[in-house]
Design goal:
The complex is a heterodimer of chains A (about 400) and B (about 230). Chain A has about 400 residues and is an alpha+beta fold. Chain A is built from 13 helices and ten strands. Chain A has two domains: about 180 residues, no CATH class; about 130 residues, no CATH class. In chain A, strand 2 and strand 3 form a beta hairpin. By secondary structure, chain B is α/β, with parallel strands linked by helices. In chain B, strand 9 and strand 10 form a beta hairpin. The relative contact order of chain B is 0.20. The chains are: A alpha+beta (about 400), B alpha/beta (about 230). The structure holds adenosine-5'-triphosphate and magnesium ion (MG). Magnesium ion binds next to helix 1 of chain B.
Chain lengths: ~400, ~230
């Protein structure tokens, strides 16, 4: 019986090509936009996560100030100045932490007037340890990293972000040139490669001038505390041990009693990953939910057209009943017709969704072309919406009184 | 007067449309027996209730009151689906306007009742083509209704009505939309079927057509005129 219904519905759909294609259009747009939103959301998530993973999964970051919630941002980012984290903490970690391979303190950053010849401009300046660049795989477009003595001393040398170099020196080499930061001249020793990262951990590296930590503290910031300490654990597996060890060391350094809260926060790449993953997943869901609205509109469209079809075929329904069709035969015939449209629509939507997602991936630069759940999802949506919007017209057809239907002109 | 052979037996059947005082009384107490092999014509003025009576006999309408026995079985209490099954197996309809489905071919039209009696698909075509050949349309099986003349369309409808070997063939003005030549052809077919034992009930307002039948009933205001 169902097979017969399929045969009939294909025939009736073919007979009403215009109407069928218009109905299909609504469904195809609805389902394909859900698919596209899912794949774009998934692709963007993949891209962001990849970039974070690229920075390294052995990395830990200690920031000054505790935080109200476990997953919340550190106090320093919220603009609260906490003065307790210092270079002595960095040294203590360097000297006694077993699970830490690299220690790289960084200072707060500040907007400072920079001069080069007669030009004057405001740029961000930050003190960073030389290990910061090596542990985080920074690459130099020209020049070099701080030497050991530059790093430890109060030397007036600077490394430029790519954008600043372009601003100040255009296509010319910057290494060996001087710029004035505050009251002193600094020799440029290196220029970083452009960080084409949507999310570099310190924000805008390309637009920052980096100088040695002590130089920044004494000459620019006038403070003896740090913004944070970047750490590299000895291995990825030891990351939790490393975290616990560093916490113990800093608490001891800061002479915190057992009852006192941490006045610093240690976050790992994993924490950041988890947080961003949650956020981007929600974003993807949200996009898909919006796209579902167009699917609902498509569904209402198909219901509308099925109701018109029931009306147009009133006499035919009466005839079929006279010839022996039971109510459920008529019901299935119309429901199957709706489902056939929906399923054809789902396949077309998959093709279109695949095409658009492919283009989006090309443009966005990610690898995920189709979210893997798209195929079952499209079919389930087609089937579900087919049932939801097909049942009412089918019931209406099935319940037609045969005589009323036969006499209908 | 009750005969053992009665296929259909109506007892004091009434039909009203609408409710209470507003109701239109269309059939006002008809008792009637149709026996196996009968060839019965019903005539009457327009609006006298002929079609309504035919729908009742054809199980498309439930009488408001009275009794309907089909093969000595009371069918007034059956469900819609049970009635559909009886219509499918035991009753063949022919309509004035042919009522073929326009988007399927002649043989597919003839095969429609077979779908609802769950005949396998392979057998459907075979039987439909055989039925069309018997009625002289063996060379038109793949034609669509709009490629056939009115007379040919009505013959397709007759083949469809006969496909399940019904107990009774019910025709409502089968020649009403046909010219005299086609009418003659259709009547000849009906006569031939009755000769082979087919029970037929025909509604017509043409005396020429009615006189072919063996019994003739005249309806006046929902009653049989005696
Ligand atoms: N569903 C209905 N509701 C109300 N009245 C109806 C209904 N069906 C039929 N009637 C009425 O019943 C009467 C008989 O109708 P019917 O179709 O049986 O007449 P008829 O004898 O077949 O006429 P004709 O020769 O014109 O076909 C008419 O007055 C018609 O208006
Ligand atoms: Mg009539």
């Amino acid at each position: 019986m169902i097979k017969e219904s399929f045969r009939h519905s294909f025939r009736s759909l073919r007979a009403n090509k215009m109407r069928t294609s218009l109905t299909l259009l609504g469904i195809v747009i609805g389902i394909s936009s859900v698919i596209i939103m899912l794949s774009v959301g998934r692709g963007a998530q993949e891209l962001i996560l990849d970039q974070i993973r690229g920075i390294g999964s052995q990395l830990l970051m200690v920031t000054a100030g505790g935080s109200a919630q476990e997953m919340g941002p550190p106090a320093a980012i919220e603009g609260i100045i906490v003065k307790t984290l210092t270079l002595r903490d960095a040294e203590a970690i360097e000297n006694s932490a077993k699970y830490i391979k690299v220690v790289a303190p960084i200072t707060n950053f500040t907007q400072t007037r920079i001069r080069k010849g007669n030009e004057e401009e405001i740029y961000t300046v930050q003190g960073r340890d030389k290990n910061f660049f090596t542990s985080r795989d920074y690459e130099f477009a020209e020049g070099r990293n701080f030497t050991e003595s530059e790093n430890k001393g109060v030397s007036k040398v600077a490394i430029l972000g790519a954008t600043i170099k372009d601003d100040l020196f255009k296509n010319f080499s910057a290494v060996g040139e001087y710029i004035r930061i505050g009251e002193a001249n600094y020799r440029i020793i290196g220029v970083l490669k452009k960080k084409e990262s949507a999310l570099s951990i310190m924000g805008v590296d390309d637009e920052t001038i980096m100088i040695p930590v002590k130089t920044a503290q004494k000459n620019v910031l006038g403070q003896d505390f740090l913004f944070g300490i970047s750490l590299q654990a000895s291995s990825e597996e030891d990351i939790d041990l490393a975290k616990a060890e560093v916490r113990r060391i800093i608490r001891r350094q800061h002479r915190l009693q057992t009852s006192e809260e941490d006045d610093f926060k240690i976050s790992s790449q994993q924490d950041a990953l988890a947080m961003i993953e949650t956020f981007t997943s929600l974003l993807t869901l949200f996009l898909a939910a919006i796209a579902t609205i167009s699917l609902i509109v498509g569904g209402i469209g198909i219901m509308n057209i099925m109701l018109v079809s029931v009306f147009e075929r009133t006499k035919e329904i009466g005839l079929l009943k006279a010839l022996g069709a039971r109510n459920k035969d008529i019901f299935y015939e119309f429901l199957v017709e709706t489902l056939v449209i929906m399923i054809i629509g789902a396949f077309m939507a998959l093709v279109i969704g695949f095409g658009v997602s492919y283009l989006a991936a090309k443009i966005g630069g990610w690898n995920t072309i189709l979210a893997p759940e798209s195929i079952p999802l499209a079919l389930i949506m087609a089937f579900g919406f087919g049932i939801i919007f097909g049942v009412y017209p089918a019931l209406k057809a099935a319940k037609l009184d045969p005589i009323t239907a036969l006499r209908f002109e | 007067m009750k005969s053992k052979d009665a296929i259909i037996s109506l007892k004091n059947v009434r039909k009203e449309f609408g409710m209470n005082s507003q109701a239109t009384k269309v059939i006002n107490g008809i008792s009637l027996e149709i026996n196996k092999g009968d060839y019965m014509a019903i005539t009457g003025a327009s609006g006298s209730g002929k079609s309504t009576l035919m729908y009742i006999v054809g199980l498309l309408l439930q009488p408001t009151s009275g009794e309907y026995l089909l093969n000595n079985k009371n069918i007034t209490k059956l469900s819609g689906d049970e009635l559909a099954e009886i219509r499918n197996k035991k009753i063949g309809f022919i309509f004035q306007q042919f009522n073929l489905l326009p988007k399927i071919s002649a043989w597919e039209n003839v095969a429609v009742p077979l779908i609802y009696s769950h005949v396998p698909q392979s057998e459907q075509k075979e039987r439909a083509i055989k039925a069309l050949s018997e009625i002289g349309l063996g060379d038109r099986v793949d034609f669509y209704p709009n490629q056939l003349s009115g007379g040919q369309q009505q013959r397709v409808a007759i083949a469809r009505a006969l496909i399940n070997n019904p107990e009774i063939l019910i025709a409502d003005e089968p020649s009403g939309a046909l010219d005299s030549e086609s009418t003659k052809q259709i009547i000849k077919i009906l006569d031939g079927l009755n000769k082979k034992g087919q029970t037929i009930l025909i509604i017509t307002h043409e005396a020429d057509v009615a006189k072919h039948a063996k019994r003739h009933i005249i309806l006046v205001d929902g009653l049989i005129k005696t």
